[in-house]
Records
---
Amino acid sequence: MSTTTVLKPVSLQGARLPKWAPWGVAVTAVAVAVAAGLAFGLHSRVQWGLIAAVLFVLGTFALSAKVEGRRQAKDRVATSLVWVAFLLAVVPLLSLVWETAVRGVKVLDGYFLTHSMGVVADAEPGGGIYHAILGTAQQVGLATLIAAPVGVLTAIYLVEYGRGALARAVTFFVDVMTGIPSIVAGLFILSLMLMLDLQPFGFAGSLALAILMLPVVVRSTEEMLKLVPNELREASLALGVPRWRTILKVVLPTAVGGITTGVMLAIARIAGESAPVLLLVFGNNFINANPFEGAQASLPLYIYQQYINSAGSTAAYDRAWAAALTLIAFVMILNLVARGIARWKTPR
Amino acid sequence: MAKRIDVSGLSAFYGAHKAIEDISMTIEPRSVTAFIGPSGCGKSTFLRTLNRMHEVVPGGRVEGKVMLDDEDLYGPGIDPVSVRREVGMVFQRPNPFPTMSIYDNVAAGLRLNGSYKKSELDGVVEQSLRGANLWNEVKDRLNKPGSGLSGGQQQRLCIARATAVQPKVLLMDEPCSALDPISTLAIEDLIGELKEQYTIVIVTHNMQQAARVSDRTAFFNLEAIGRPGKLIEIDETERIFSNPSVQDTEDYISGRFG
Amino acid sequence: MDISTRKPQAGDDDTVSAGAATTPAPSDPGPDGKPAPTSGAPRTARGTTRRGDRVFLGLSRGSGILLLAVMAAIAVFLSYRAALAISKDQGNFLTTFEWDPNSTEPVFGIAVLAFGTVVSSVIAMVIAVPVAVAIALFLTHYAPRRLSGPIAYVVDLLAAVPSIVYGLWGALVLVPHMNGLFSWLNEYLGWTGLFSWQGGPARSMLTVGILLAIMILPVITNVSREVFRQVPKAHEEAALALGATRWEVIRMSVLPFGRSGVISASMLGLGRALGETMAVATVLSPTFDIQASLLDPGGGTFAQNIASKFGEANEQGRDALIASGLVLFVITLLVNGAARVIIARRKEYSGANA
């Protein structure tokens, strides 16, 4: 078999840039960017960073193309672009966490956590978020009481019983529900309140939050139930255990870790929702411990109102940051615990 | 075209774990060399050190020398990408690119290495598919996805893809283990033809296959689980299967362990 | 939808009747999941089975039906209130550049809101998708393994940061930092009109777009990373063995495999961006007009407008806001539907069986 060779000859010896080359290019790029920034009097550090990034990518390409060839050059540019993208994205996300932490600790103390705003004027220092924490806890708690059982039962229906048109419809609409913007859920409950001529109260917010929470719970529970091996169900059924006891005693206990995780992640998600709360719960500077009557406060809503009503008062901004830090801490702890449970109790 | 491989003192590691230890052997050009041995003895790992695929695995590391004619694959200034271009590989499970057509699969390697005219590409694709005994079966559906072929056809497509860039050496990692007997036979016939042009190294679990297709056979073994694998002996296939010089080899071949 | 393939056979529970010898198990109880006639209809088969089973099935099916009822109610009530509002609208609901629904002669339209929503989301997507894909590739293919695990975890957590915190950060940290970029854009690209800037605070569509991009970045990254991680090793090794560089491996095997996943991830992010309320409401300084410049403050989005105008709205005004919310709802439904169609089509084509 003689072959007509159309291939260019290859050498195993590829000229390679030394290992330190990317660092060298990076340092040079930064140096040139700083020099250019100073020379042209560019004030924004962001601008310097961008110039450095562009120089780095171009420099890498030029150098590599000259020494190593176009294919290697492309590979190196891809590598540096990926790194640059990562670093660019890290900056704002780190800044978010950092700024919240630093600005948040200013007024965050025991007093802040245990007192309400009461009669403290928006622009004045003082006051706290006790009323908001209370409101959020009640609203989220009530929403969970509605959404968790309904969601878990719906998932049980889909996995253990569901077939046919009804199950397909439910599956489809769970997907649709996942995409509902939170403000739309709020508007829905608002439309009910308009018809019944109701004033804002905590439980109305809970209903909207439950709508947002429901599809998340259904999805995660469904995933977890599907992980339970069928052999377990069959073993139980073969012992003469009725289906419902099999589900309660065998299937759910096996999946309980995952389901708990899913519910907790869903709680973390709705705890930070402010849009529906704004429409339905309205906000309140005083403590209102009754979620079924009268406007309540809520932590995310508190942050928004401190920001928007304060007309630039530092005291209000400080309170907003402190509340934001509290909220983030709550959400993160919930996330961490939920993930811990998931790792500890996954059905295998 | 085909080149000789000379391995000396080669060890391979996964992180801290030593997978194979101190292997030296010569692999002759234009012949088929088979690697046999029990599971976990490091024959696949060794195969992957021959085209520097081993270091793709996180923590993968190699010590020793692999000479391809007179170039050390692990020498300074050697580009692993060019090594893999020179030493092609066929895997255990057929793995055509699922989103590419049959034609594009075969042409994939060429397109990486520069731009070719359509007519040149057409020529190489046809030649490679003919070389893989696949041309007659697919010539009417070159633009269909490669994943639509049967397992045996897919594996031959992968062989065509590997030979399209005209490597000097072709490594085969249990190429028939996922195939039915008829497809296996087709691949074995193909290996017999390909050795006219290439240096072929094949890892196999199937000793009959080693006896059928190879000229020389290397037997690998490990002392215990967790210990590195070693080369026990390498010799003419006939001798290994009739009168091996090491007792372990005979035990393995006669089915007393492994 | 592979639910049906994983579940026990229908009637498993009936084949072994626990101590209920007097009620012989029916030979064909019919599939459990068939929407049961809720009343009246003869159900001799079911009627004789255990009470516990009936109650439990009833509860779980009832939950499913409740969910459907809620969805139906959302559609019906929003449409009803929206219809009330639109019937009183003196302007054209789709084209009017005004939002004055509270007076006795209400005039309002969604043109400005639709424009602003689309523009801010498009900016967000243009920034976020490439960066998110790059980060996902970074985590799966570039970062040292010791780094990529923790970073992925942190990105996961960032996806859970409440939007109001992003809003606060955007308004108080991001906005002041945009001035440099804005004056630079204005200086060099101002002639395009898109990037002209009169020097007001940077509470504009571009800032909103950037903030939205930062917000949806973790979401898109997470999903894309999952998809890239699932690329079969065999495909990547096939490319490597042909002598492909790392980037070529990604081009040949990772990106084609992950494309539909990235699209669905992006759509998920787009859905978030379209419906985002608080972050936009805190950052944007809204006006009710459409302007060419992305840098000058102004414009508005559906969700932001609802949050901002809600406080001053009377019942009629709230209905008008509900009408605009309905439009937002329909848009997000269309986006999600489109994502699903794209994914379904890609699946058919790739037919990956390796």
---
Amino acid sequence: MRDIREKLLKKIHELFDAGVVDRVVGWKAGEFCYDVTPALFNAGNIDEILYDAFCGPNQSKFLVKGAEGGEKKILALLKPCDTYSYNQLITEHRIDPEKIYALGIPCTGMVDINKIRALGISGILGIEEDGENLKIETLYGTESCKKADVLLERCLVCKGKNHVAGDELLIPDEEAPEVPKCAERMTEVEKLEAMSPEERFNWWRSQLSKCIRCNACRNACPACTCRTCVFDNPSSGVSAKVNTNDFEENMFHIIRAFHVAGRCTDCGECSRVCPQNIPLHLLNRKFIKDIDEFYGEYQAGAEPNVRGPLISYTEQDVEPSIVMTRG
Amino acid sequence: MLKIALAGIDRLFAAIAASKKLYLPIENAGEVEFSEYSEGAKVRLDALQTVKSAKDAFFPFTENMMQFHTDGKNISVEAAKRVDEDFVVFGVRACDARSFSILDKVFLADPPDSFYAARRAHGIIVGLACHRPEETCFCTNFGIDPTKPETDVTAWIEDGVLYWEAQTEKGKALTEEISAFLEASDEKAVEEQRERTKKILERLPLANLDLSYFKTHPELEIFKRPEWKELSSHCLGCGTCTFVCPTCQCYDIRDYNTGHGIVRYRCWDSCMYSDFTLMAAVNSRKSQVERFRQRFMHKLVYNPINHEGEFGCVGCGRCLRKCPISMNIVKVAKTLGGEQA
Amino acid sequence: MQLNDTNQAVPAESGAYKPLIVAFCCNWCSYAGADTAGSSRLSYPSNIKIIRVPCSCRVNPLFILRAFQRGADGVILCGCHPGDCHYTTGNYYARRRMTLLFSMLDYLGIERERTRVEWISAAEGAKFAATMNEFAETINRLGKNRKLRDLRCEI
């Protein structure tokens, strides 16, 4: 990662010097080794831009606001998976690619600090990559774990090293390091489908009952870019600041997932940001799985300006009764 | 000082729960929250912190305040019942315990909030000392001693034994009720643990946070600092920091139309939301910079001004761990006050 | 979820259970189909409440959920037959949306028999009555909706 960062900084300097861009959305170091904050940089502080295994946040949504203002283009640093969201935002006219210079950067998998903590490792002071392992300095001694065990959910089912959008690549995709896929995308969904309705209901109740309705899933989602969300609109009849009971917990999450169905690229930001670690991506993936099965394989954001499955139809589409008959 | 072996602690919980509601850090679907005890619940006294703070037991996430029923042309109003029975919150850490004194100054100031006051009057808090702090802990900056929480009863866990010491009248009364389960003990194990913990506390990366800037500079000067813009530039405007915060106290009152009446309830609100203190004409804080600034000004500047120099933060570190973009009070404090201090 | 709450008791069940069914009917076909059923003197249960909508695709998933919230035990959406939409294609979109929504409800463990879509033309009074009778019977058998209810609406 270190040499990628050096290359990246060199490239950013070039783009600033050539007058192509005048600001860049990057990552800023935090108090610890893992709490990286997305931030806007200008010519003065480019060298503070960080790029390491904790730069997980999907940057594409920041471009909705970030691309406004400024004299020149804004530089976006997009990991392969971020480019799917980027395409989707272009399709939905939420960003103007004319105002953005998108640089594709390689990624070798991002680490989820929550997963390290879930291993019982606490008091984390420093983390170093050591081949396939992570060496973790803590207040209570040195620990280690396999990097593959603590990757973000989205990295476990990595879409691959190819960028599907962007003006330029930092290194050609063919030369970029391979990212191993560690899990099948639909395994967890299938497990739930195999349960009895009663088991499924209880499983989802115990998950969704944790929800504190902080809206982090919605606000971090690159597909949720409505200026006023239906849940914030006092005229909608469903606006609320918290879930007052389990109905509202269910409703919020069903509707949130439905509103991004067919547009969700499965970037997994919703699950990454959830303070309660609710596996929200399993709602989105269910829609993706159904769409694939009923209407043909579809990957949102794979290319720009495509009509999504929920705004198209065929005369031969399956009937809703398929839900009853497919077993 | 009294003690009980952890192996038999379930009997103690059952005894308390037989006469009172008992709230404990309980694991559900992988996360620990204060929840009502029931037999077989997965009690996690080893968890350093719950996701939401213990304030949930006194100032709940949401609660009904009154109901209106319509019957033809008649409307009847029914006030919600205040809590009128004692309950126990077990396993409160020192940071959360301190947050109650911050909340008290708001909710118990004249006129007192009767919902909160009733819960405070009936709540018995059993604190639990920390012995394995996280790197995100910085409570010592606020004069909090995590090895001895300021609660009705203080408990320590060391080597499979829970040590118990009543600190207040309420705590003594509770101790009386369950004295059959406790046996006398000396203080050696506890003292040793406290010494050990204090050494770890000194090594915490955020142990020496300098917050003097916020007390020595005029509020308007801090308010006008240009850094607010950059600090807030990537704030998502979600409510995570406010909802996990033990000292955030803002709420909204809303009416829910049930079709045959109204339920008036209150619920936590977040100053990070675009519809916070929404008025008929306009929102008082139009941009995320203003909302972001409001939250941190409240914690670091307004609270000390209004409450004898006390910051609106207890250093629990929840926002450090939970913010989706890892922006938090420590970064704000260091950016604004780091060099001037 | 609410902690330490004194005011949200589960209401006591009253004796006789009579399900409440909401039928969203498209103005051009199914609502007229209900009329045809009436003028043909075909009967269907009185606890089916019809809500007229301009087109089946006017029904968004929130309508379905809110019907359950406010006490419905079953929700049925009726529209023009595919190909016969007054607005040419509305019911094609509704078909996709409802397929995905119903599948999601099933995924969350909510009884899949509580939701249904039927295409009923203005001439099909008999189909309207038969569908409603059959659906009411299904809901009767399932009993009260407990998984998607809002207790506040029952106090």
